Amino acid sequence: MTIVSQQALQMKQVSRGNYLMRNALKHNVIFNEGSKGDAAYILTEGKIEISGVIEGHKKVFAILTPISIFGEMALFLDDGVRTATAIALEDSKVIVVTKDDLEEFMRESPKVIASIITVLVSRLKTTTRKALKVPSIGLGVVRILDLFSTCGKMELKYDATVKTLSDTFLTTPEKIEQYLLGLADQGLLAVGRDQNDIRIIRIRERDMLNAVMQNKF
Description:
Layout: H1 3-15, E1 20-24, E2 29-31, E3 40-45, E4 48-54, E5 57-64, E6 68-70, E7 85-88, E8 92-97, H2 99-108, H3 112-125, H4 137-150, E9 155-157, H5 158-168, H6 173-185, E10 189-193, E11 199-203, H7 208-215
Antiparallel strand pairs: 1-8, 2-7, 3-6, 3-8, 4-5, 4-7, 9-11, 10-11
Helix pairs in contact: 3-5, 5-6
């Protein structure tokens, strides 16, 4: 997410009282690896260390400074646990962001979705495969597509979408295409070409997540 977008998010939502601003003193743990994830955080002041345990040893994945979003995978995946630990390296302030908070903001400002996905891809590329284990890649794909449809973005470029999703979930483009074909078979999306003969994905179902869960995808 760009600094401008995150500042807009912070100022708009905090001023309306929708977000909880949390103080984290130096050495405070924001969340632990293995704990249940139910919110993301926006760092507005201070410094946060993101780390995990790899083969019995601590591995630092990132040192975050304002303005940064972290813990964001909790907003996209069901039944997931935290894949890293977040600790304040100095006195810090963070905004607690629930999935409902994020979706409400994006309904009002659909353009922010592209920035959110950029953050996801950038963050995930810098961590290890172990730290990126998710309960279901298929469900993760559905959640991201559902986020697009919720914001009214019903048409996506095929090649770019496949590449972004494969990079995000550290899997092959072929595997992502299998999931997309499964959704197409259910009639939830269609693959075609636009007026410029560019291959695209058309999302047919605005409440894709609910539709997929009903079909037990």
